[in-house]
């Protein structure tokens, strides 16, 4: 799989990435808490090797997004309604990374008090790597859950159509779940409900590489390997099993957009696509909607038993027979954790293009950034 | 897709199927509650067109299972430990269909009192169609969740290997979620985390039809269309995206087998595969483990708003452009509901083979069954 590491010419220390991103976000107008949370989430993704959701997006999503009117800095995230177990919250069109940290902390606080906590949030924005928030639950001996969804009621230039359909109604609606291990590493699943996320298509386009068959289709519904013509993403499962990926994407939409009220009752900012605003056909979601959950393990028995079960599960997986030509069998989160350990030691790799972009942003906001040449490998 | 309807020679009225199954299960030794719940679950699956999990299995799973020592009739399902929100329960190696009804009712009862309820159950058995239990939450204005998992720590003759592996460690670990609609039908997702469930492979074998590519592999890991050689199921996503299906199957294992304690701490009945019982390599799960959840919609806002959001979602999906050659675009649960309405009116189709089997079981237990020839179509 192509990623930034393969094309990396430079590295930046993780602490430097986080400090730099914090200061840049503050100078761009975000509050200190927004900046700290945003920098945490971006650095976390970059450390874990999720480069498509890491520091690469600092300028293009989270700084440019202010100028484009997508993100309102210095937002006040609020609770519409709540119970001891649940809340419907308003992301206030703010920095999605910070709204997600806030929403997940709210879920964890509720779980700490009651045993479980779930938060459905409307009016959010791009939250980066969903697993960052699910992972926050682990240190509290909880299972963490994070999802983000977007439903394009009238279609969108790119997206995931329903099975048998050609209108991209859904975003790639990812699901992330994290669960603590004991002696072993935590389980961290983070998956788009399409076969590949759209930013994989973008990355291959940037690198001039063809897509694999079964990833995407063109406007007319034909499978394509051309990143520029790929507008319809196959739901996970593709031609034979895509109804399952589509079903999972709808589930994410229900827990995010429907449960939060996010997708259909914000008429003031709807993209009405020429329909009168009171026509149901004009419904479109304002921003992304999110869902965060935290489940305290001790609700189901001794925490140590759960962790022993996780450890024995991981050991059993590692005993599996291995396909010829593969070097091992892994559990979700395992390779990301190894990457995190390596990058904490060696720094976060960046491409020349990204190094130039970050240096320019640093100059603009007068924040220095120490970038080093990548060690030759 | 092949199913029983295509090969059906006879029909049985739904009320007749349910009454027949109830009496057969009682005479086979199950308690009246087990028999009623079991018959409900089998009839529900058959009505919804989930023939692989319906009345077809009355004898082969749920009667023969007693003789094979897999199922203990007249079981007492018990709670190991509980909180207002959660329980760890023991399915007592009983009838999985009845254990699942009992477990889901427990989750719904907790949710009715507190807002949410989750039950992890160990020592369960085959629960049939997981969506049957998720669907039970709908009439209470709750989102319902049901999963069943099996982790073969030392492999199994058939199953789903982890990505890059050749040992079938996982069963097809299905996920079912149901959410109420308003004027529209409920959303009901029910999906194995493999590309196809194993009973699809069996059904194709019975019908002498080749599998599709990308469904299964043989022992050496090569893709095969021969149902008899298909021992390794591809996780959902197949060769390119199967790490996601594998990740979902592991998630199901964590919520079912690990959270319930079901898979690793029942040494007395472990299949030790030649290992000493205290060797971690000997761990194997006793029976299946389940997870049931119920989330009251009013925890997140007005129930009517949620239902309106569901209705508008479904209407938007129905407005999607349709692929050439398809007659429409559907939401999970929509075709099953149409099948249910048709079969409630016209009866449940059965193959000649199944009609003969049911008639024989009826003779054995002295329970009459009214089977009619299928109307010519």
Question: Overview of this structure, please?
Answer:
The structure is a homodimer of 377-residue chains. The first copy, chain A, has 377 residues and is an alpha+beta fold. Chain A has two domains: 1-74 and 347-377, Malate/L-lactate/L-sulpholactate dehydrogenase, four-helix barrel (Hypothetical Oxidoreductase Yiak, Chain: A, domain 1, Orthogonal Bundle), CATH 1.10.1530; 75-195 and 234-346, 2-Layer Sandwich (Ribosomal Protein S8, Chain: A, domain 1), CATH 3.30.1370.60. In chain A, 37% of the residues lie in helices and 15% in strands. Chain A is built from ten helices and twelve strands. Chain A has helices at residues 14-27, 32-47, 57-67, 96-114, 131-135, 198-207, 238-258, 303-318, 334-346, 352-365; strands spanning 10-12, 78-82, 86-90, 116-124, 142-149, 175-179, 187-191, 216-217, 232-233, 288-296, 348-350, 372-373. The first copy, chain A, has a seven-stranded mixed β-sheet. In chain A, strands 11-1-12 form a three-stranded antiparallel β-sheet. In chain A, a hairpin with a 7-residue loop joins strand 6 (175-179) and strand 7. The radius of gyration of chain A is 21 Å and the shape is globular. The model of chain A is unreliable at 267-277 (pLDDT under 50). The interface between A and B is large, with 91 and 91 residues.
Strand order of the largest sheet of chain A: 2-3-4-10-5-6-7
The poorly predicted ranges of chain A are 267-277
* Overall tally of domains of chain A: 2
How much of the sequence lies in strands of chain A comes to 15-25%
By secondary-structure content and strand pairing, the structural class of chain A works out as: alpha+beta
CATH architecture descriptor text of the largest domain in chain A: 2-Layer Sandwich
Q: Biggest β-sheet of chain A, characterized?
A: 7 strands, mixed
The most extensive contact between chains is: A-B, 91 and 91 residues
Shape of chain A: globular
Tell me the CATH topology of the largest domain in chain A. Ribosomal Protein S8, Chain: A, domain 1
Percentage of residues assigned to helices of chain A: 25-40%
Write out the CATH superfamily name of the largest domain in chain A: Malate/L-lactate/L-sulpholactate dehydrogenase, NADPH binding domain
Rg of Cα set of chain A: 21 Å
**Average residue pLDDT of chain A:** 91
- Indicate the CATH class of the largest domain in chain A: Alpha Beta
Compute the separation of the termini of chain A in Å. 18 Å
Q: How many extended strands of chain A?
A: 12
Helix count of chain A equals 10
Question: N-to-C SSE series of chain A?
Answer: EHHHEEHEHEEEHEEHEHHEHE
Oligomeric state of this protein: homodimer
